[in-house]
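tool_call: predict_structure(chain=1)
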Amino acid sequence: MSADPPSRADGGGSPKLASRLAYRIYDDIAASGLAVGEVFGSEPDLIARYGVSRAVFREAIRLLEHWSVAAMRKGHYGGLVVCEPTSGAVRSAALIYLNSRKASAGDLMAVITELQCYAARRAAEVIDDDGAERLRSIVEDEERFRAGDRDGTQVPPGAFRERNLHLAIAAITGNPVLELFDEVTFELSRSIARRRGAFAVAKMHRSHRELVDAIVARDPNAAEAVMRSHLQMIAEAYGPESSEG
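tool_result:
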């Protein structure tokens, strides 16, 4: 287990006892080298080991479960089991924070442009046959959707994480940091789009075929150029900067 939990700061003042315990347990699990699915210890043993009350211990476990670090399993072979970390907790926390800071479409597009232009270039450098097939499949789904959604009322495939071209390109790079930040900006862009109302999704996806062709052709310069042009199209679709609140 190597993924870090959210920031250890609680927003001001001293962290609560349960929060401090959760981070301590996290550190101990990481140091133990236990694999996903292995048991770190039973509830009675861990309460005794850390010298805390059952209430504090269970609150700490709720935090660990929220972070997808570990979870309690009942039964004879139960205990605190190491989990496979996911990006969900980090993604949700980042989305709440950025929405609370009223991150604008302009803020979002500035970051997206740097991240995704790099992703397009890197994907073109490392893509294999499986990756090329996945990108082609996503574009073909979009084209079939556009052909059938003549009144513009249906939900496009790219609205779903597993069929979003930009997230697929980030995954092809093999860079987990890029994948995580792309997921955060994907969720934030959906949030901003919902607040502003629907806009021409079809227009935003017209250059996807050209983008995929450049990446599959393993042409980093062309891939970056097409991505930059595509993102400018999206920025224009968002419309002029205005109050997001």
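agent: The two ends are 39 Å apart (CA to CA). Proceeding to next step.
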